[in-house]
Amino acid sequence: MSLTLKYFKSGRCCSVPQCKSKYTSQISLFLFPSDKRLQKKWAQALRIGKKITKYMYVCNSHFVKSDFTLSIPDIPVQRRRLKKGVIPSQNQLSPI
Ligand SMILES: [Zn+2]
């Protein structure tokens, strides 16, 4: 019996516990902010107990519509950008 870990080819998925979002056309993944203080706030808001690395992502379901710079309904989810300094407020899966 071999211990095979499941690795996903894309390697990109949401780092929030309980969140199983992987990179698809419906999901947008955001890197943690480079600002350490903001990074800490994100980790607290999302209850991530481990160290934040620059390889960790958070998916769009942890943000509310007003966190994005564009709120035009037609804009594809992947084209959305976060406003500066926003903190994710949604720690459960909810469709945007
Ligand atoms: Zn997520």
UniProtKB/TrEMBL annotation:
One of its GO terms (molecular function) is DNA binding. It holds the Pfam family THAP. Its main location: nucleus. PROSITE patterns: ZF_THAP. Keywords: Cell cycle, Coiled coil, DNA-binding, Metal-binding, Nucleus, Transcription, Transcription regulation, Zinc, Zinc-finger. It is found in: Nucleus, Nucleoplasm. GO terms for cellular component: nucleoplasm. Residues 9-91 form the THAP-type domain. Belongs to the THAP1 family. This is THAP-type domain-containing protein. It comes from Hypothenemus hampei.
